[in-house]
Amino acid sequence: MQELFTYFSKFAPLPMEGKNAIAAISQQVSIPKNKNLQQIGQTCQTIYFLVQGLARIYYLKNEIDITEDFYFENSIIVRAESLFTGRPSRKAIQVLENAELIAIDSQKFFALFNRYPEIERIFRKIIETAYVETINRIEGIQFNSAEERYQALIKTAPDTIKRVPLKYIASFLGITQVSLSRIRANQ
Amino acid sequence: MQELFTYFSKFAPLPMEGKNAIAAISQQVSIPKNKNLQQIGQTCQTIYFLVQGLARIYYLKNEIDITEDFYFENSIIVRAESLFTGRPSRKAIQVLENAELIAIDSQKFFALFNRYPEIERIFRKIIETAYVETINRIEGIQFNSAEERYQALIKTAPDTIKRVPLKYIASFLGITQVSLSRIRANQ
DNA sequence: GTAATTATTTATCATAAGATAAATAAACCG
DNA sequence: CGGTTTATTTATCTTATGATAAATAATTAC
């Protein structure tokens, strides 16, 4: 739990009482490499914090597997389109390395907001940050060539190339696996 | 102000005292068609609510004007990458029709969060909603052809085609103006 | 209302990236 | 360890979209 609170403390202070309240609704989870943490079709009712390992969110489009995003140590993983709408998610969370996570019951977590405004504030700031990242990502996709996007990834998230199979990276970059391979060959 | 509070009430209830506090830090603004409401390089310190008219956020990439997003009546306009980081924005807000807005001082607005948790809650939910829309938009860009993206826009936001000049729509869809024109001709 | 500006379309040519298939290379499993 | 599966690369061919230029249409300003 310590990693989680260290992460939270970057957004706003959280008194001990609030920490205890969160600890009471959280569980440690271990998942082996390549297993899905959440399946497509399940409604997102858990806020995950990745302590150790690597994960991705993906979905299927015409039977093709498309990676929406990657998650590394010390990050929150939620399927926002489901968590914030209450609708079943079209997306799955898959772990790409053996992983240790903290699972927080989202209903109970949201219920804490009334008693602990600090928790609501931290969560708000986490979402604000995620929102900004997503906006920036659109910009990165919009008018960059496949090669520029690959180079940008190497620069901004070199871990991705090192730790993630290329087949998952290609769709994340919005290109085919074959195209990514071609780009890599031209370097 | 009434339009703003009606909009807010969709997210969470807001007592009269909170409304008055917001009214006290807000101003009505009128801007003529095609004028910039905020310039590139300014730090975002205002939360706008569009009462009447139409606006867009745009930025320049290699001297090319790229539309990030469009905003219609009854929506909040902020340059999130600046508002949430405190850094100067690389983006401008331009009004595409004569517009009526409510301008809320963001510093003062955020300061209200401590006294009125309801306001923080409303704002959090607004950002959550915007975040989900942005995630969905990435999905729409990622593996759709230019034509599919154009068709999707006609379907999900027909107002855009009716009210916005095509030159602004093209970059929003991630394609050139010429390409958009070609797509329209093939229908 | 006419000229000047700006937006949109059309045409031509070039190219990045998709589709498909096959060859290697790497990872996994009994 | 050897065989099987899975991932990555390479090759060929096709196509959607970009770049550029020019024509037409619409809007704006005097």
Structural description of this entry:
The structure is a homodimer of 187-residue chains. The first copy, chain A, has 187 residues and is of the alpha+beta class. The first copy, chain A, has 9 helices and 8 strands. Chain A has helices at 2-9, 16-23, 80-83, 106-115, 117-142, 146-156, 158-163, 166-173, 177-185, and strands at 26-31, 36-38, 46-52, 55-61, 64-71, 75-77, 91-95, 99-105. The structure holds a DNA duplex (30 and 30 nucleotides).
Distance between the termini of chain A: 43 Å
CATH class value of the domain at 2-115 in chain A: Mainly Beta
Q: Which of globular, elongated, flat, extended, rod-shaped describes the shape of chain A?
A: elongated
By helix and strand content of chain A, what is the structural category? alpha+beta
The CATH architecture of the domain at 2-115 in chain A is Sandwich
Going by CATH, the homologous superfamily of the domain at 2-115 in chain A would be: Jelly Rolls
Radius of gyration of chain A: 17 Å
Total of helices of chain A: 9
What number is the mean pLDDT of chain A? Answer: 96
Fraction of helical residues of chain A: 40-55%
Topology, pairings included?
The structure is a homodimer of 187-residue chains.
Chain A: H1 2-9, H2 16-23, E1 26-31, E2 36-38, E3 46-52, E4 55-61, E5 64-71, E6 75-77, H3 80-83, E7 91-95, E8 99-105, H4 106-115, H5 117-142, H6 146-156, H7 158-163, H8 166-173, H9 177-185
Antiparallel strand pairs in A: 1-8, 2-7, 3-6, 3-8, 4-5, 4-7
Helix pairs in contact in A: 4-5, 8-9
The structure holds a DNA duplex (30 and 30 nucleotides).
